[in-house]
Each structure stands twice: as structure tokens, then as C-alpha cells.
Amino acid sequence: MAGRAVLFLVIAFSTIYLILGQNFGRLSNDSVKNYTQYYGSTIAHNIAVSGANLGANQVFFDPTWAAGYSNLSFNGGTVNVSVQVLDAFKNIRQIVSTGTFENYSSVVKVTLQPSSFSKFAYYSVYENGIWWVTGDTVFGPFHTQDYLRVAGHPVYNGKVTILKSIVKYNSQSYPIFNGGFQQGVNLPLPTSGVASLETASNSGGHTFTGHDTVYLTFANDSLRYKFAYNGPQTTVLTSAFAPNGAIVADNAVLRIQGTVKGQLSVGATGSSGYGNIYIDDNVLYNSDPRTNPGSTDLLGIVAKNNVIVTDNVPNRSDVIIDGAIYAESGGFGAQNYSTRPPSGTIYLLGGITQNSRAAVGTFNSTGLATGFYKNYRYDNRLMSSSPPYFPNTGAFEVISWYE
Fold this sequence. Notes:
403 residues, alpha/beta, twelve-stranded mixed β-sheet, 30 strands, elongated
């Protein structure tokens, strides 16, 4: 009996060991298989990421690059890269990179869009010898192609890039860069930014032609326009009048005011007194992004020459401007800035891009002598969003990276 029990015990342990051995063997095989799969898929993924970086680098150096790579040997595998145009009019492109290693493959998709000047809180080509002084504070990205002249301790809370160098008023002067600083950055202002907006207004927007002056009043989701100060006024629904949000007064002066609802860019083209945009009264967003972070109201104010705060009665006691300003050949300033009476403050929510820095007022020992004080606040949404067809820098930026 005892011998039979021992036999049963030996058989039981043998069975257990056989089962355990089989499981251990299967686990060992699965581990090797899993490791092989992980290794192969990781290498394929790394190849795909590298291909996406190679493609993005080519596009950044040459925005027209679309050749791609075909079966390029890389890290023991191959990579195929293509450039697809997702939106030809907005020039939105997608780089698709496929990495292959042995029997494994991985895909990375990178979407690029043109980088817009609207992202700058402040941009200038020429500073006209004007100094940034203690008390001046800039929020958001800053760039100038000129010297950065500082007297005292102006504060820059966004990244500052300049082409030339810093000029200090004296040895005690130094700027405060809270967002970083880079010198030697060349970012020229294009000469075709307004023309690109007009191309859009001719195709899906609206272009005013044959008029010296266009008076445009934003009325939430509608527009009112006329062609003389006392002329008849026409009211239209914005979405039907300019479905793509681009409106241009061709070879004319554009005068604007009112409350904007939605996303628009308005422009003026021309020379010899035309191509200017006048701010005749407050230009406001229907939904203020400072109190409503979900606001989608955006306005681009795009002039071939100057954007000017009108010298009139409504602008004698402050003026509010919500929007991204672009003055391709001129600057942003106030009409009769040196002779108009003290007129309060310009409250700007957005950004300024200008060829030549202009003035809005003069000061004396007691404060404001003529024109306006400045209260400029950056609209943080402009870091990632842009008014329709706002002039771009000619370079691309990544808006999505999918792995």
C-alpha cells in the first residue's frame, strides 16, 4: 500500500513538473517572440520618425519641396516619405513617412501650415530710432529687423528675436527678456502679403472695386457698407457676402468700425494715398476672449500702406481695437498725432506687424501732450490661430504630429 502511494506521488510530481516545464518553455518562447516584435516595431517606428524629420527639414529650407524619398535605406531598414497637399489654397501640407524594418512597418504623419505674422505681438522692419523704455511691456513674440534700442528696463514676456543688435541708452540700461532672446534672426516682411489676401477675396470672399473709399461697419454677423460719408448704406449677411472671410477694398481707402462676430480679414490695396485703413471708431469682438476663452472671433486688419486711428470725435476719448494689424509698406499710427488734443488711450487686443514704426502721440514732463497713451495686450490665441488669409512668413510650422 505504501509502495502504491509512493508511486502515485511520483506520478503526480512528474505530471506537475511536465506541465510546469511546458509552461516555462512556452513563456520563454513567447518572451523571445515578444522581444523580437518589440525590437522590430521600435526600429520601424524610429525609422518613420527620422523620415518625418528629414521631410520636415527639407520643407523648412525649401517650402516648395515635394520630391519625398523612395525606399531610402536607413538604419537597417527603408523609409518612404511623401508630401501631400491637403489644402492648396491655404497651402496646408502633410508629410507621410513610412518606416519598414524586416516584416514590421510604422507610419508618422506631420501636418504643416504656413507660419503667420499674426503670431507676433510686435514686429517691425524699421524702428525709426525710437527707444523702448522702463514701463514698456510686451506680451507675446517680438521681432525687429532693426536695432533694439533700450533705455532703462523694458520687459519682454514673449520670445524676442532681432536681426541686428541691442543698443543701450547708457550703461545702466538693460532689457528684461522673460521669454528668451535670439540675435541674428532674419525674417523679412513680404511684399505680397496684401496681394495674397486679395487673391482670396477674389475667390470666395468679396473685393470692392471702382471706389475711392469704402466705409465698412461690422454689425455682429452682418456688414454695412457705403461708398461716401453721407451715401446710401447696404446691409448684408457676412457669411453670404464673404464666405471665406476675406474682404478687400481694391485701390481704395478702407474705413472700419463696429463689432465683429466670426473670423474675418479686411484689407486695402493701392498707392498714392490709397491702400490705407482708418479706424473710425471702436472695433470690438462680439465675444471678448479675455472673459470667454472659447471665443472664436478673430479679425485681421491688413493694409498695403498704413493703419491709422482717425482724428475724429468718436476717437477723442479712447479707442478700442480688437484684431491683428498688418501694415506692409507703412505703420500703425494716429492721424495728426502731434497736433490732435490728448485723446486718451488706444486699447489694442491683438498684435502689430508693420514695416515702419509710427507714432500715436507725444509726451512732455507732465505726461501726454497730444494723441494717445498705449495699452497693447497680446491675444494669446494668435499663437495657434490666425485670421483668414493673414499674410504669412513664407515658412511652415507644425500643427500636428501623429505617430
